What does this fold into?
Amino acid sequence: MKVFAYPLLLCCLMLTACQDDSKTDPESTTPTTAAQPTTPATSTAPASANNVSTPAGSSGESGFVPQGYQKVWSDEFDYTGLPDTTKWGYQTGGYGWTAKELQNYLKADPDNVGVENGVLRITALEERIGRNPYTSTRLVSKGKAEFDQGYFEVRAQVPSGQGLRSSFWMVGDTVSKMGWPNAGEIDLFEHYGKFPTVMNAAVQNFDNYWSKGNQMGGSKIVKDAETAFHVYSLEWTETELKFGVDGEVYWTYQQPAGRGWRGYPYRWPFYMAATLAVGGVRGPQTPPTPDAFPANMYIDYVRVYQK
It folds into this structure.
């Protein structure tokens, strides 16, 4: 397996790439596994030094890493300020993206993104900029850290509130040439505020994607997803993708026979993305409510392991 870590690019080049991708690499959508609606919580416990504990295991490791894998990249967010620019960049704009979302993704605005108390915070705010009544952040590792297969862990806590969609996902770096969904997308986790206890995983590719109506995905009940940190994981191999929560695999996508890259485009480097979106036409189409803001998604760490 290969790891692709790129040197820091000039900001202008990075922004240009982000604008190009804004029309081609959307986030994922409604999971195909049915989930029962539940009443959303009305508040989210903020991250602090008191509720961000070191994961179990030696050297702070989760204890869920499969045998044979070694860490090749991570961001522990053990600093203060904006996210590390050698690891993360931004995709910006208020295009509505392909899901007709309502937020304007801003670049490095400390009101929308920051690292405090060892935790990354992505914040959605009810504030109008141009045509968009909300602001947020779309953080990406594009051009800085891209990976072909491996085991990925994200320890996160998601916000409550209707109209919110919290996601950590990955996009094939060929998206600018092949377009979406041909380049592939892997949704390591996705959470809709309308269903506070349901965590989702999904894949998008040429054969299966949301607007075609046949997206492939799975769901798991995580009763305190909005008030506690959990480890969300992906094991990506040559033939399958396994999605888990706290070490328990709950959904597996296997390479379909005879479809080649059309059914399994997970054969080239992918970059990572962390987003907190507002509104849109995917998933439960519920309007955002004022009591949901400010909304905060917290990430304790992102770790990548390979054999």
Observations:
- Confidence is low (pLDDT under 50) at residues 1-59.
